[in-house]
Amino acid sequence: QKEVEQDPGPLSVPEGAIVSLNCTYSNSAFQYFMWYRQYSRKGPELLMYTYSSGNKEDGRFTAQVDKSSKYISLFIRDSQPSDSATYLCAMSLGGNQFYFGTGTSLTVIP
Amino acid sequence: SQTIHQWPATLVQPVGSPLSLECTVEGTSNPNLYWYRQAAGRGLQLLFYSVGIGQISSEVPQNLSASRPQDRQFILSSKKLLLSDSGFYLCAWGGFGYGYTFGSGTRLTVV
C-alpha cells in the first residue's frame, strides 16, 4: 500500500466550476499537508501548507484536512483555464522528508 | 528573495555516458537540498538530500550519486547512465515548516 494515494484523473471541468481534488493516506502520524501545482515541463510550486485537521483558505483555493478519515482535499472555486495543471498532494511527519501523491491532471475548458 | 537554478532543462545522453546535473540556490544560507526524480504515474521519488556541505543521505540505492561541494550547490552525477535513469529530475530546497521550492527541472532521456 502506498503512503499517499491520489486519483490521477484526468479531470476536465468547464470554466467557473468548483474543482475538488483529493488524497488519502495510510500513515496516521502525518501532521503537515501540502498541495503543489505543476505546469507541464515545470517544477511543482507550493500552493497551500496546512497543519493538522481543519480548513485553510487562500483566495480561490481552500485546503481541507480530515485526519480522522486520513483524507485531504483541495477546492478551487471559479476555476480558470490558467488552473489547468497537475496538482500534487504531499505530507510530512514533521521532518524534512515529504511524501507525494502521483498527481491529478486538471484541465479547465474555456 | 530565494531562487533556485537548475540546468540544463533538457538532456539526451547515450547509455553508458556520464551525467552531471547542477543546482544552485540564492538568497538563503545552509539550505536543506534535495534531488527528486519524477516518472510518469509514479510521483516524486526522493533520491538524495543534504543538510550541509559534504553531508549526503541516499534514499534509494541506484546508479546515481550526489555531492554538495558548496553551501548552495548540489550536484547529481552518474558514471554510466542506464536506460532506466530517464526521467524528470528536480532539485529542491526547503523542508519542515515551509515546504519545498523546486527548480524548473531537467528532462533526461537516455538513448
Attribute tags:
heterodimer, A: 110 residues, mainly beta, 11 strands, B: 111 residues, seven-stranded mixed β-sheet, four-stranded antiparallel β-sheet, 0% helix, 61% strand, globular
Q: What features would you describe in this structure?
A:
The complex is a heterodimer of chains A (110) and B (111). With 110 residues, chain A is an all-beta fold. Chain A has strands spanning 4-6, 11-14, 19-25, 32-38, 45-51, 54-58, 61-66, 71-76, 85-92, 98-100, 104-109. The radius of gyration of chain A is 13 Å and the shape is globular. Chain A is 0% helix and 56% strand. In chain A, the strands form two sheets. In chain A, strands 2, 4, 5, 9, 10 and 11 form a six-stranded mixed beta sheet that branches. In chain A, strands 1-3-8-7-6 form a five-stranded antiparallel beta sheet, with no helix packed on it. Chain A is built from no helices and eleven strands. Chain B is an all-beta fold and 111 residues long. The termini of chain B are far apart. Chain B is globular and about 40 Å long. Chain B has no helices and eleven strands. Classes of the chains: A mainly beta (110), B mainly beta (111). The A-B interface holds A 4, 6, 8, 32, 34, 36, 41-46, 49, 88, 90, 92, 94-98, 100-103 and B 6, 32, 41-44, 46, 49, 51, 59, 90, 92, 95-96, 98-105, 107.
